[in-house]
Amino acid sequence: MRALAINKLINEASSIFLKHEEDILSGKFDKDLLSLSTYANHLEEIGKQTREAVFQHRDVVSIQIAGYEVLGKLFAEFVNAVLHNSKKGNLVYHMLPKEYNNPNSDEDTYNKILKVTDYISGMTDSYATSLFQQFSGISLG
Predict the structure, then answer these.
(1) Mean pLDDT along residues 106-129
(2) In terms of CB atoms within 10 Å, which of 110, 118, 127, 131 comes out highest?
(3) Coil, strand, or helix at residue 103?
(4) Residue 71: which residues within 8 A CB-CB, separation 6 or more?
């Protein structure tokens, strides 16, 4: 049943695309392709139920909240380390890879923060979590 439903949607999406191809390719088409589908109401209901059952599920939301804590702490610790001179900050500063820290740099504040942001945004979830645990004293490496 699922394969049949997906096949119908693919065929309908293809048909809608071909019907509006000129507007799509010229950048004039600004709608969700399947919003023009005969199944638009069904898809909207599926989306609503999916949001409620999956994306807003307590377990998923708790992981997202934890992610804010992890990223927030890492960002604060690294920014503090690159902008301020303190004992802990100096230690945290040495945790930055060489391409993100340059003690002799005359960079302005914006670029220092940008490097920290670049470093953190490139972290995997597991690495960020591990580093957060180390900084928090939960894990010692």
Answers:
(1) 92
(2) 131
(3) coil
(4) 120, 128
